[in-house]
Amino acid sequence: KKTFMKISTFLILFFIPFLINGKTIELTDNSRISFDNKSIITQQKNYEENLNLVAELYLSKSNIPEKLLLQIIPKNHNEFEIYYGTTNPENELSKTAFFIEITNMIFEKVTVDKNEKFYLPSLQFASFADGEFYETFVFYLEMIIKIDRKKFCDSVKGKEYFERNPIKYYYEENNCE
Fold first, then answer.
1. pLDDT score, position 37
2. Distance of alpha carbon 103 from alpha carbon 21, whole angstroms
3. Coarse DSSP helix, strand, coil percentages of the chain, rounded to the nearest 5 percent
């Protein structure tokens, strides 16, 4: 299984990103990859393909389009496991700062750029806080709350991730009721 995963990861990282929905991604120069928005895959079953495209852009030090960055914010535990899998020593991306740099990039779209498109997805992303990166997720969640406590309180109530910690903890801690 591990050998298959290594081979699959290698193939996906180096070949699949060049073909998406039957379209070739044009390499315009060594630092930029261009493609149209229709080539961004939006279905959950294609989460890995979106993540691999982000990995290819990251590894080539190319700009990662906002729309594609939104697509790789995990929406469920399965997607988070795939995303977190980039830290597995058997994954080539674990030899880079991919996980932490992309995580920071996502959260900074809300905390620094004040980009509304990332607000709710970032809260959902923070709900997966666990393990070695727990503190990073909580750091950004606390920043989001400090920016606008009322907005946080109003935004998380009734969401599927409302009952998950740290969201539930910070909802109660901030007397959101």
1. 45
2. 26
3. 65, 5, 30
